[in-house]
């Protein structure tokens, strides 16, 4: 992957997510990137990454209050820039969540729901923590060189219930089969943490820079 430079990755810094782990991956891959919380700077990016750790409402409120929500709507819906939401960043792509009352971006139709603990056979039930495999539902360049059986690192208690199955790139089994990666037009979401998922995660970030 060395030498890929056509993209300029803008990592949205709003106080949530493993932004420095992500930036280190792009630095090692010789891919142009920057970290910013300023819309004027982020507008210069060709691709955007929306990380996320924490609760849905708390994260959405931060984006609303900072003006980043309005800015991202313009970049994603207006200018059609590719964006990748990670973990809670993926859940924010939905219309709303059982975890809170605020509206999400709604770029991908669906609702974020809490796992039903009654379907699990042994404790601990939640959060879904650690490595798990993915079942690829659609062939897509973002999965180039990814080993589904090696899987990815997860940490979450809620999942994205997509309205349209055509928006699901991969599923993962944890009590139920849930969407672990989603895609609609220029919008991508990963429920797992690519920045904690060794070579599979590195490949996801490199592949995203080329979509």
Please supply descriptive tags for the structure shown above.
3-stranded mixed beta sheet; alpha/beta
Describe this structure in words.
- By secondary structure, the chain is α/β, with parallel strands linked by helices.
- The protein has six helices and 13 strands.
- The chain has an eight-stranded mixed β-sheet with strand order 2-1-3-4-13-12-11-8. Strands 5-6-10 form a three-stranded mixed β-sheet, with no helix packed on it.
- Strand 12 (176-184) and strand 13 (187-190) form a beta hairpin.
- The longest helix has 11 residues, at 56-66.
State the gist of this model:
The chain contains six helices and 13 strands. The protein has helices spanning 19-28, 39-42, 56-66, 68-78, 88-91, 198-208; strands at residues 9-12, 33-36, 47-50, 83-86, 96-97, 110-114, 128-132, 135-136, 152-156, 158-162, 168-174, 176-184, 187-190. It has an eight-stranded mixed β-sheet with strand order 2-1-3-4-13-12-11-8. It has a three-stranded mixed β-sheet with strand order 5-6-10, with no helix packed on it.
**Amino- and carboxy-terminal Cα gap:** 14 Å
| Number of continuous helical runs | 6
Average pLDDT level: 94
Lateral strand order in the biggest sheet: 2-1-3-4-13-12-11-8
Structural class: alpha/beta
User: What radius of gyration results from the CA coordinates?
Assistant: 16 Å
The percent range for strand residues is 25-35%
What does the overall shape look like? Answer: globular
Please mark out the parts with pLDDT under 50 across 5 or more consecutive residues, or reply none: 1-5
Number of DSSP-assigned strands: 13
Largest sheet: 8 strands, mixed
Spell out the helices and strands N to C.
Answer: EHEHEHHEHEEEEEEEEEH
Helix content percent band: 10-25%
